[in-house]
Amino acid sequence: MRWSNYLIPTLKEDPSETDTISQKLMIRAGLIRKLGSGIYNYLPAGFKVLNKAINIVREEMNRAGAQEILMPVLQPSELWIESERFNAFGPLMCKFTDRTGKIMVLGPTHEEVVTHIVRNEISSYKQLPINLYQIQTKFRDEIRPRFGVIRSKEFLMKDAYSFDTSKGGLDKSFDAMYKAYSSIFDRCGLKYKIVLADSGLMGGDTSLEFMIPAESGEDLLVSCGKCRYSANMEKAECRPPQSLEQEPLKASESVLTPGKSTIDAVTEFLKVPAMKLVKTLIYVADGKPVAVLVRGDHDVNETKLAHILNTANIAMADKETIEKTTGGPLGFSGPVGLKMTVIADHSVKALKNFVTGANKADTHLTNVNLDRDFTPAQFVDARVCVTGDKCPKCDGTLSISRGIEIGHIFKLGTKYSQKLGALYLDEKGASHPIIMGCYGIGVNRIIASALELFNDQDGIIWPPNLAPFQAVISAINPRDEKIAAAANGIYETLKGMNIDVLLDDRDVSAGVKFKDADLIGMPIRITVGSKTLKSNTVDVKLRMQKEQYTVNINEVGVKIHGFWNEYTTLMEKMRLQ
Predict the structure, then answer these.
(1) What is the spatial order of strands in the sheet that 253-256 belongs to?
(2) Which CATH number fits the domain 469-576, given the four candidates 1.10.260.40, 3.40.190.10, 3.40.50.720, 3.40.50.800?
(3) What is the pLDDT of residues 484-525, one digit of tens each?
(4) Cα 294 to Cα 226, 347, 367, 376, 496, distances in angstroms
(5) By C-alpha distance, which of 402, 23, 441 is closest to 214?
(6) What angle do CA 68, 74, 79 make, to 5 degrees?
(7) Side-chain half-sphere of 96: how many Cα atoms within 13 Å?
(8) What residue ranges do the domains of the chain occupy?
(9) What letter does residue 244 receive in the DSSP assignment?
(10) Beta bridge partner(s), residue 141
(11) DSSP 3-state assignment of 65?
(12) CA 174, CA 60: separation in Å to the nearest integer?
């Protein structure tokens, strides 16, 4: 391909309204262009990279024994009503009414559709196990699309679904996908962590996320520095305190705290640390109020809380509900005398003589103690982990970092097969729901994650298997017949060797050519100019190196694979650092 005929509209400056390195670089390097909020066009070089990622995903899924299908984006709402997820997705789901009056959905995911296929086409244990996958566009009406293609309204996903007759069969399918995902992300040259995760709206029990460590990531990762424990923040366990505070119990006292309704205000006013306060947060779960107690320096983990209460319908109570159920205004709730279920985080169990709200305006209680003043219905792990917490699996210390989710694998069980009637007959003719697994990869995110991981002040540094081109030939002053002929000769030689090469034949300065090559992340740059031609040589430079190699013009083809191997080796070292 010749640059003069190729659409790569690079930009010298960072575009406005960009949040992340990957978003800036994808726009500056001419890979994508924004069409609207959370909607992007892929230009030729960007689409080429996207297809390279798609091909890797497809090859590894096929190698794992999965079968590729294609399911429609447009889905009838009846399926979602049948699975009881139509309302669960809420405003995230893009839907409209067609001309016949039917409500249609632009699929945010395809569990319902694939289960519909299987319930109509599979009826016997002899047809199982099977794994069906697709690479398809999904739609979610994100309220705040951001980070470029990392969180967009329209995105490309590889989603696979396994169907088995037993939990043991599901384990095998899950393990096969685990290995396939590891191979995919290894081939894409990405650094990644595999962490425990919550299944969320997808359902199921066992759930693992493949995460890219990145400061721009929206997800928080909790990791132990001593053992291999890793989890996303929603799933991360908080270890119960190992010892209780040792101090004599004091008499409880009601104290006026005028206008002091926040933790910071109360701690400053009463001259106590936040960890000596107990927050009483009122939630409504399935229409019933419940009080949740956490230490003043901790926050409630609402995902954990939903599992504890066995409900997906949970929300913070509004002011009116708080006043009605506690007798006091927002900011002054406390557990003493509450006429509702009270659950407490394990950390509260270790406290003595702590401060709580008094369920009365401008009033708090000091020296409150468990059992004497109130007794929770149960102690649970209901809080968000913080840096410095002890690991739940060893005596190590937890740290928190950010990451980008690029893959997620679930053991769904029979959630969808039961609701949608995907059944099979066993050897004895008895009917059972098929046991399912679900496995997703954000294909767009593979590209963005690579850019978040590998870049410098000059632009992109591509993992080898994702680079839009392996090499660029920079012809300095292509109007010179000798330079043009030499550059064309190398170009034809490399093409004949199946090297993916771009010939920069533009009539622009050498500086512009070099800056664009670095910005786009060309792994190998071959420079053909008048100075080098005098000695019948060219300059060869690898993207991440400053030094250049002088190579005889007739040996470029012979040595190009060596340069490519060197680039690949250097990138692998960067990945493993």
Answers:
(1) 253-256, 363-368, 354-357
(2) 3.40.50.800
(3) 999 999 999 999 999 999 999 999 999 999 999 999 999 999
(4) 27, 7, 16, 12, 67
(5) 402
(6) 90
(7) 7
(8) 3-236+400-451, 253-380, 469-576
(9) -
(10) none
(11) coil
(12) 14
Distance between CA atoms of residues 6 and 173, nearest Å: 43
**Could you tell me the pTM of the whole model?**
0.91
Cβ 399 vs Cβ 223: under 8 Å: yes
To the question of domain 253-380 being in CATH 3.90.960.10, the answer is yes
Q: Can you tell me which residue has the tokens 């030689």?
A: 493
The token pair at 431 is 């009917």
What pLDDT, on the 0 to 100 scale, is given for residue 313? 85
- Over the stretch 201-248, which tens digit does the pLDDT of each residue have? 555 578 999 999 999 898 999 999 899 899 999 999 999 998 888 899
Record the tokens describing residue 258, joined without a space. 């005028």
Query: For residue 481, what is the enclosing H or E element?
Result: helix 481-496
Task: Report the distance separating Cα 314 and Cα 434, nearest Å.
Answer: 30
Q: Which of 530, 552, 441, 464 is nearest to 156 (CA)?
A: 441
Contact 119, 420 (CB under 8 A): yes
- Tell me the chain's radius of gyration from C-alpha atoms: 29
The answer to whether 147 touches 216, Cβ cutoff 8 Å, is yes
CA distance 69 to 58: 11
Q: What gap in Å lies between CA 185 and CA 177, rounded to an integer? A: 12
Residue 464 has pLDDT above 90, yes or no: yes
Per the DSSP assignment, residues forming a β-bridge with 438 are 161, 410
> What size, in residues, is the chain?
577
Specify the residue for token string 């103690």: 369
What ranges in 188-318 are assigned the alpha helix state H?
263-270, 302-308
Round to whole Å and give the CA distance between 575 and 265: 47
**3-236+400-451 has which CATH code?**
3.30.930.10
169 backbone φψ class: left, alpha, beta (φ>0; ψ -120 to 50) = alpha
Give me the residues paired with residue 538 across strands: 551
3-class SS at 191? Answer: coil
